[in-house]
Task: structure prediction
Amino acid sequence: MNQRVRHGSGFSMVELVVGLAIVGALLAVGAPAVGAYLTNAKILATAQSFLSGVQQARAESIRRNTTAEIFLTDSVVISNPAVAQTATGKSWIVRAPDPNNAAVFIVVNGKTMSEGGGNKITVNGSVASVTFNGLGGTNLVAPATFAFGFDDKACGPDIRCINVVVTPGGRSQICDPAVPMSALTDSRRCITT
Result:
């Protein structure tokens, strides 16, 4: 009677190396796509947060029947309503006049957009601030655009930059600057009036 001796089940070294090589190849192919997806998600989330701030500034101006303002600043201290305004910034602040002293502003809301070193979200505004009046209109004479991107990556097919546009009438929209103006029915198209 000839019996085969059965050794322990498992993977041989060759099978293990081949399996690891396949997993490594798949990760190498998929990693750039995952990285681009995560970058695009960060850009979109930051732009949506800023759009919420714009809408909150407009709502505050109507609710208080006075002015309210959203502005960009390089300061990461968002509790100080007197920080300097910039057209590019690390933070945004919504502020309104104090009802007891019109010369003093109070912070309604604010957010730091990017912290720490390395890659970060950038914003470039065509204006440093937008002031809404008690009717929800703005101090703008032309639409203001706030362009969101990533500091070391150019906008293109992999990295989708996002704009937030505010019109003189107070309308605000998040849009994709890559969508042509001729695409009249595309809701991602940036408004111009």
